[in-house]
Design goal:
Layout lengths: L4 H33 L5 E9 L10 E5 L10 H14 L3 E4 L16 H6 L7 E3 L3 H4 L4 H10 L3 E2 L3 E6 L5 E6 L10 H5 L8 E4 L6 H4 L6 E4 L8 E2 L3 E2 L12 E5 L2 E5 L17 E9 L3 H4 L1
Parallel strand pairs: 1-14, 2-3, 3-4, 4-5, 7-8, 8-9, 9-13
Antiparallel strand pairs: 2-14, 6-7, 10-11, 12-13
Bound molecules: fe (ii) ion (FE2).
The site of fe (ii) ion has 9 residues, from loops.
């Protein structure tokens, strides 16, 4: 059947309106998903960390990393409380927090209510924390330190702690001050660590790995990137913050060091997450026999 020019125009108009409505539907669904669904879709990722310098008696030790809660209008104390229960359900041996507790410390009215919540976290081998840029921002430096200390976390600021078992085997947990707003000092952080000690560095900004790889660090744990908060399929994040440009999510090899970038739990600037859901990470340590002791 032959089509008239009028019918063609009508079909064209119908198709255009259909595409427009379809586009609007996808855009509004995408926004709804990024605003109300994905930010609360917690993912728990599990990884084994194997290395010859991890002592045999540390086999099976679990470390939970949580990061970037950004407590504020879009991450409530109630969510933090639920998170703490989830961490305790994992029964970790060690817990580390890699910075950015409150989004804007100087505007946050419930700071004192954080302490009893974080105090509930149970970790028999210790709870450790470092500064992120938001913890120093808004005159938060002392507030953050007090909250973490009173909640039973040991703040690591250009220093390290030794985790030693009854058989005297040990690993080191080092922590650096924030690279953007703190006073980081690489030499001071590592100078007292006994040689051949497996060392885990907590450093908020992942791109600090480029410098950290020149020191005796075996694993760096970072946050800060939020995975970019918005990622597109096949493209990745549209924007990542300064010092999360090169490394923004998951594992990387940087020189002889491994780096893990946790996507964090909260959001900043925009309360949106798309293809980069909030994350809690569980690492299980494993001794790797050297080839000599294999035989
Ligand atoms: Fe952050």
């Amino acid at each position: 059947m032959k089509t008239t020019p009028q019918m063609n125009r009508r079909t064209f108009l119908k198709k255009s309106i259909g595409s427009l409505l379809g586009g609007m539907f996808i855009a509004s669904f995408g926004y709804y998903y990024a605003r109300f669904i994905e930010p609360s879709r917690l993912t728990i990722s599990k990884h084994s960390i194997t290395h010859p310098l991890i002592p045999k008696s540390f086999d099976g030790m679990t470390i939970v990393q949580f990061s970037d809660t950004h407590l504020g209008d879009y991450y409530s104390l109630e969510r933090l409380n639920q998170l703490v229960s989830q961490i305790n359900d994992i029964k970790p041996d060690l817990v580390v927090f890699t910075g950015d507790l409150i989004d804007a410390p100087h505007q946050y009215p419930y700071a004192h209510q954080i302490i009893p919540i974080l105090s509930r976290i149970r970790a028999p081998f210790g709870k450790f924390s470092i500064y992120g840029n938001h913890d120093h921002g808004g005159y938060g430096t002392n507030l953050y330190r007090n909250i973490m200390n009173q909640a039973g976390f040991r703040m690591l600021v250009n220093e390290h702690a030794i985790i030693q078992l009854v058989d005297k085997s040990k690993i080191a947990i080092a922590g650096m001050d924030d690279l953007m707003l703190g006073r980081p000092h690489f030499e001071q952080t590592f100078q007292q660590i006994p040689p051949s000690t497996y060392t885990i560095l907590l450093l908020h900004e992942p791109d600090g790995a480029i410098q950290a790889a020149h020191y005796p660090v075996h694993l760096q744990l970072s946050g800060h990137s939020h995975g970019g908060q918005i990622q597109l399929p096949f493209i990745g994040p549209l924007i990542t913050p300064p010092l999360a440009i090169q490394y923004y999510e998951g594992f990387y090899e940087v020189g002889k060091m491994r780096l893990y970038v946790n996507r964090g739990l909260g959001t900043t600037r925009m309360p949106l997450r798309f293809l980069t859901p909030p994350e809690l990470t569980i690492f299980t340590l494993k001794h790797q026999p050297s080839s000599a002791s294999d035989g």
